[in-house]
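Take one protein record:
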Amino acid sequence: MIGKISRRGAIVIVGLLIFATPAYASLVLQNFMQADIQVGEACFEKVGGDDPIAYVGTDADDPFVDFSKDPNKPVDPDVVQVDGVNLLEERLTVRGMRGDRVIYTDVVRYQNNCEIPLTIQLVTDGGSATGDWGDRSARVYISSNATAIGTNPTLGRPGTPASGWDPTPIVVEANTGAIPGANAQTGAVVVAPGQEVRGAIVVAAGVNSSTTGIGTINWIAEAVN
């Protein structure tokens, strides 16, 4: 037998259902925002230093550096793709000499033309460099003291105390081309508006180095405020 529910009882039951519903329902919140993307001229720039001068002498063993900016605009840069966007990558060609160390102290200058201070650091993704690293190695430095753009600071030899260079370079190990995680970044230096820091490379090539193989290392200059 089906019992009857009085009108008052039905109201009570419906009321219970109404109040019980939120405990079993999904709650969806939507918060809308909009981002308008604009593109402007870069205020953090990389320019070639004094070292990037292609050597044109007759002795093929003499060192040279070739930086693909002349002096401020890309001449023949590579293109790298990040998140589907084509970006420019400047390329340095650095020559060592078998059995010697070759030191370049002004291959690139990182300039802050912004209106705010920037903290600049050179980094890689760790892992390994590519190509031929047999009996050769490299260290990539950044200067530790920012100076006014266009000035010529007095810098010592990278890797020596009080030389004006950050003491923790990026290191590419000989033979394997490995870049240990602990050596995959330089220290960071604060660069005020209107100042710059310099990049250096030290190449060590052993007596058994091939004069035909090429070792390649990629790094990124990160600038944050």
The first strand starts at residue 44 and ends at 48.
